[in-house]
Amino acid sequence: MGCEKAWELMMSRLDGEIDRQNQRYLENHLKLCPECRRQYDSLHAVLLELDRTKPVAPESTERKVMERISGARRKETVVLLPYVIPPAALLMGILTFLFYELCMDGPMAVIDKAAQAMSTFCRACQSIAAFSRFLFSGLYLHSVLIMSGLAFLGGIFAFLYGQLGKGMKVKRTGGQ
């Protein structure tokens, strides 16, 4: 076993995460290699001193670390928004459509349409994910987001207009 592997095993041993076989390998290497034995003894001494003194970081350090973690989480959330908002808006549109259908057709027709809609939604999400990976890796990310958002809103308005138009035709033909 080489010194690099011994170093890894030393770290595992000091962390208390070493199995018996590796423990034996490490002990044999430490008996044969005086340099690794000195490193192990000095690491062990440092850990014993840390356990004995139990140093505590100042409160300002903890606050700064927590602020950095919080800032990183906010950045991660902003990066994920383009992947979350379009599917959520699509789901809202589907749910609105289903609610409308429930009021018009009854529960069994809605359950059937819900199953079809969820299947379609699933395929749409897969397509959106594949398309997003392609588009968002390009140079025109902001333009693509704006255009897709506008197209999506236009699709929703066209769908709603079509649904309202069907309702108006049914009322007109039913009265004649």
Q: Quick one: overall form?
A: elongated
Order of helices and strands: HHHHHH
Q: Uncertain regions: pLDDT < 50 for 5+ in a row? A: none
* Largest sheet features: none
- Work out the strand percent: under 5%
Mean pLDDT: 76
What's the count of strands? 0
Q: Please work out how many helical segments DSSP would assign.
A: 6
Structural class call reads mainly alpha
Number of domains: 2
- Give the fraction of residues assigned to helices: over 70%
Rg calculated over all Cα atoms: 32 Å
Ends: how far apart? 94 Å
Walkthrough of the structure:
Helices cover 89% and strands 0% of the residues. The protein has 176 residues and is mostly helical. The protein folds into 2 domains: 3-53, no CATH class; 79-174, no CATH class.
Give a short overview.
With 176 residues, this protein is mainly alpha-helical.
